[in-house]
Amino acid sequence: MQPAATVVSAPPSAPFTERRYLVTLAFVTSLFMLWGIAITMGDVLNRHFQNVLHVSKAQSGLVQFSIFGAYAVMGIPAGLFMKRFGYKSGVLLGLALYAFGAFLFVPAANAGSFVFFRGALFVLACGLATLEAVAHPFVAGLGDPRTSDQRINFAQSFNGLGAVVGPLIGGYFILRAGQEHSNDLESVKLLYQIIGSVILVIAGAFFFVQVPPVQDAHAAVVPGAEAGGYAEAPPRTDQAQGRSLLHYPHFVWAVVAQFFCVAAQGGTWAFFINYGIEKMGFLAEKASYYFALSMVLMMVGRFIGTFLMRYIAPNKLLAAFALGSIVMCLLVAQSMGWPSFIALLMLNFFFSIMFPTIFSLGLKDLGARTQQGSSFLVMGVVGGAVFPPIMGLVANHDVATAYYLPIICYAVIFLFGARLYRVR
């Protein structure tokens, strides 16, 4: 076994990207925003289905089960498709599934069926899973390998922008009190028709983009003769090249950490609006706008995190943010009014860098197995399917108490950032 590699933050001289990648980077970054909208719209639907379809909190948690469960199903097929047909074809497949799932909302609304809606969400989320499996290694490869962490966090900042837009759209068109269709499914049907049409237009535009050759963003780097003190490591000549992914401990732990990361995210977001209504006395629409504010804090956290990673090793920043999340969960669970609600808002700030940083640390030094590794990391997102129904069972009795559960998740993430991230 090789000794643990020393993690050194990228030097300031490493370029963020290259001119030839700018158009492609802009398109791929927009994908992060698109699935941010879709994921947080699911949390708005969670509350709307409680009202219109008369399902319990635990049952409404199955919305997240349908969304994140698709990641477990689609993760490996998306990776195989990407390996066979390339990044661009993977993006187009993801957008096509996204649009098809959105259009399925029309017959689901006509039938008024919770099961049908979950099926539509599953198809849509298969598109999201494909986009995530493709977009992370894609954006990481659009420039210098030493700044791949920065590019992924930068792109994820626009995922944060989408996460802000999602609750605003949902709050205005679906949860707004007094509007004609606030208590039926017509607004949901119309909104997802518009979303599906927009996605098709974006897919058509991306079809005509010329994608330049993409670099291996996760090649190992060692101290060298370059000005920044880095040089690409020579190709491996030992048997490690033929090892399976299970023989990379840092990758295995990254999948585990990603499972718990998205579990915490799914549970926290699924019952945010319920917390605002039950503990703060807000109307559903107002609670959804505060949900959007929490997403602003997540976006801010990602921009700040991207900047700090030029001076602080990504794993150390990840561990620090995990500790911050544990403190926030403890405050939220006390149900102390505004102090607890502010802590609930701040959870997204501390959550901000977790997903992209775990993703990037997990892919380090996988070489030719990077695309396959990306698929398994996307499958780790299934944690978001498992956790919300469990939190919902507790939330049926007290929504504040349910926020003790994500502490388990953040403890695992802290251990990954503190020790288990090391490449061996």
Automatic annotation (TrEMBL):
What is the residue range of the signal peptide feature?
none
Q: Say where the protein is mainly found.
A: membrane
TM segment ranges = 21-42, 62-82, 89-109, 115-142, 154-175, 190-209, 251-275, 287-305, 317-335, 341-363, 375-395, 401-421
Keyword Protein biosynthesis set for record:
no
> Which domain of life does the protein's organism represent?
Bacteria
Q: Which PROSITE patterns match?
A: MFS (PS50850)
Question: What InterPro entries does UniProt report for this protein, alphabetically?
Answer: Lfuc_symporter_FucP, MFS, MFS_dom, MFS_trans_sf, MFS_TsgA-like
* UniProt domain Major facilitator superfamily (MFS) profile: residue ranges: 22-424
Membrane topology designation: Multi-pass membrane protein
- The answer to whether the entry has keyword Repressor is no
Tell me the protein's name.
L-fucose:H+ symporter permease
Natural source organism: Hymenobacter fastidiosus
